[in-house]
Design a protein that fits this description.
Layout lengths: L2 H32 L4 H8 L1 H4 L3 H11 L8 H27 L1 H33 L2 H29 L5 H23 L18 H9 L2 H18 L5 H9 L3 H29 L2 H24 L6 H25 L6 H59 L3 H6 L4 H10 L1
């Protein structure tokens, strides 16, 4: 696997990220703060890709069996990215339609955000499957690392670029910027995809694909695995549940303009990337994965607490550093928890546990964002808008601390000593 091919896989990941950032880093703020749409409704629309994530297994299995024009993955990647960027480009129209006439606008928004969500899942599972198909086993971790690094860099660059392009903000400019992002994403994806998959190629390895249901049911049969899965749900929902609310919070608490709140995504992403690099180069030598997960969680919880206190106490100078602290803790927690999960598996179980990780990540993002929006709307009736946002961040900090208490009780060595044979587990699951 050449570096050029790894970079081309990364370009597909970058294209999807470019379609995502304007929605979660700009449109959420516009819809909640400028248009006054309920945060719970905005959250429900933005989490549609996570609600649709179970279709990844069906799409992956379908593309396994139904190549098109001699290509097993390329047509599905192209279709997914096309739906993703077209849906993303139409989301501002849906937001303004809801503002003009709510119920018809909401129906249109569900359609548009649904197209984006289906495209997102179709593209992601297809290009990850292609990476697995044509990457020798010894190069897969390197390929994923390159894709992840390029994706985080794209998130930062897109946030900075869209923030500058939206100065000054106007609805017309917002629509134009989203169209530009869609065009850039489509161009990058096209350059990365053409010629990437050999025609009529036989995959280097074809691993069994496990459904989300199979992964979860297998994991919950083991008490130690079940405890770790619940811990992941708590940890991820606390860290990732702020996605929808961070930018509108900056606008509400500190009267930050659209450009400034968009830069929060760049700040968070830069800190996350720095943490990933620092962990990979330095911290992993000093800290075990479990201790690293504890450190990352504590840093992230501190960031969430400071974000809440900055608004309550009107201390704007600590807000952006607190966002960076949250991003740094997120980076360490992500790297260490994924490594910790792999520590707790045998080679034969990796597919199942990666599937369980995907379920935990999608469910935590979706549930965390939705509950954050609902709590914000309800708390605003009692403590006002700024206090409502602060309440959500404090609750997330408490959930994260609860997760860390759960982590202390997880014994990796005990899990490995009690692991069961994968074949027996799957057979038992099938007989249930």
């Amino acid at each position: 696997m050449s570096w050029l091919k790894m970079i081309r896989f990364g370009m597909l990941h970058v294209a999807v990220a470019i379609s995502l950032v304007p929605i979660t880093g700009v449109l959420n703020r516009i819809m909640i703060h400028e248009l006054g749409i309920m945060a719970s409704i905005v959250a429900a629309l933005i989490i549609l890709p996570h609600l649709f994530s179970p279709i990844q297994v069906f799409i992956g299995q379908f593309s396994d069996r139904h190549p098109l024009w001699g290509y097993r993955r390329t047509p599905y990647i192209a279709l997914g990215i096309l739906l993703c960027v077209v849906g993303a480009a139409l989301t501002p129209f849906a937001a303004f339609a809801m503002d003009a006439n709510f119920w018809p606008g909401l129906i249109f928004a569900l359609l548009v955000f649904g197209i984006w969500g289906v495209g997102f899942n179709t593209a992601v599972v297809s290009y990850l499957s292609l990476a697995s198909d044509i990457s020798p086993a010894q190069y897969r971790s390197r390929t994923i690392a390159v894709m992840w690094f390029m994706m985080i860099t794209a998130v930062i660059s897109t946030a900075i670029g869209t923030g500058r392009a939206l100065e000054p903000y106007s609805p017309e400019r917002l629509i134009e910027v989203f169209a530009i992002c869609a065009g850039v994403a489509l161009t990058i994806a096209t350059l990365g995809l053409i010629g990437l998959e050999p025609r009529n190629a036989v995959p280097l390895s074809h691993e069994e694909r496990y459904s989300a249901t199979a992964s979860v049911r297998t994991v919950v049969r083991d008490p130690l695995a079940r405890r770790f899965f619940v811990y992941l749900m708590f940890m991820l929902s606390a860290i990732l549940g702020q996605d929808v609310l961070l930018e509108p919070y900056g606008a509400q608490a500190f009267a930050m303009d659209v450009r400034s709140t968009t830069q929060l995504t760049a700040t968070w992403g830069s800190a996350t990337l720095l943490a990933l690099l620092l962990h990979g180069i330095v911290l992993s030598r000093w800290l075990s994965n479990k201790h690293g997960a504890m450190v990352g969680g504590i840093i992230a919880a501190t960031g969430l607490t400071l974000i809440a206190l900055s608004g309550i106490l009107h201390l704007e100078p600590i807000f952006v550093p607190a966002v960076a602290l949250l991003g740094f803790g997120t980076g360490i927690a992500t790297a260490t928890n994924l490594a910790l999960m792999l520590d707790m598996t045998t080679p034969q179980q990796v597919g199942l546990f990666i599937g369980a990780w995907g379920v935990a990540d999608a469910a935590a993002r979706g549930l965390g964002n939705l509950l954050a929006g609902i709590i914000r709307d309800l708390a605003a009736l009692v403590v006002g808008p700024t206090g409502a946002y602060a309440t959500v961040f404090l609750i997330e900090a408490i959930i994260l601390c609860t997760a860390l208490v759960m982590l202390r009780a997880i014994d990796v060595s005990a899990f490995r000593s009690q692991r069961r044979d994968l074949g027996q587990l799957v057979a038992a699951m099938g007989d249930a």
